[in-house]
Amino acid sequence: MTGYDFHPEAALDLDEIWEHIADDNLDAADKVIADILASLDALVSSPYLGHIRPDLTSRPLRFTVVHQYLIAYAPEEKPLWIVAVMHGRRSPRVLAATLRGGE
Questions:
Q1: What whole-number distance in Å separates Cα of residue 44 and Cα of residue 58?
Q2: Disulfide-capable partner of 13 in 29, 72, 80, 85 (CB 3.0 to 4.6 Å)?
Q3: What angle separates helix 8-22 from helix 26-45, to the nearest 10 degrees?
Q4: Which of residues 91 and 29 earns the better pLDDT score?
């Protein structure tokens, strides 16, 4: 048991991230996903380590960054609920719209 679970869209986000990176470098794709999962493992025991982003959502979500990926999660949920994993260079409007859709 991992202590976290993914919204179906967030699970798809991980798959898309891996596929995008793997097009150029399989080892790098595996490392990025492993680093994201390691970060999530750390958040299970300390879910409030992440920061809030009132510019993106009014929902009680926290955020953490791994490489260039912004991870949105619900710290009060058990297991920890991963809402989205998004590239940090995306427009804040797109990020906010993604979070609205991930309820």
A1: 22
A2: 85
A3: 150
A4: 29
- Cβ 72 vs Cβ 61: under 8 Å: yes
Cα 25 to Cα 21, 33, 70, 80, distances in angstroms? 6, 13, 21, 30
- Per-residue tokens: 36: 């994201």
pLDDT at 101: 64
Domain spans, the chain: 4-101
Residue 2 sits at φ, ψ, to 5 deg, of: -95, -25
Q: Report the alpha-carbon distance of residue 10 to residue 80 in Å, rounded.
A: 13
The 10s digit of each residue's pLDDT in 17-61 is: 999 999 999 999 999 999 999 999 999 999 999 999 988 888 899
Q: Report d(CA 101, CA 72) in Å as an integer.
A: 12
Q: How far apart are CA 46 and CA 97, in angstroms?
A: 27
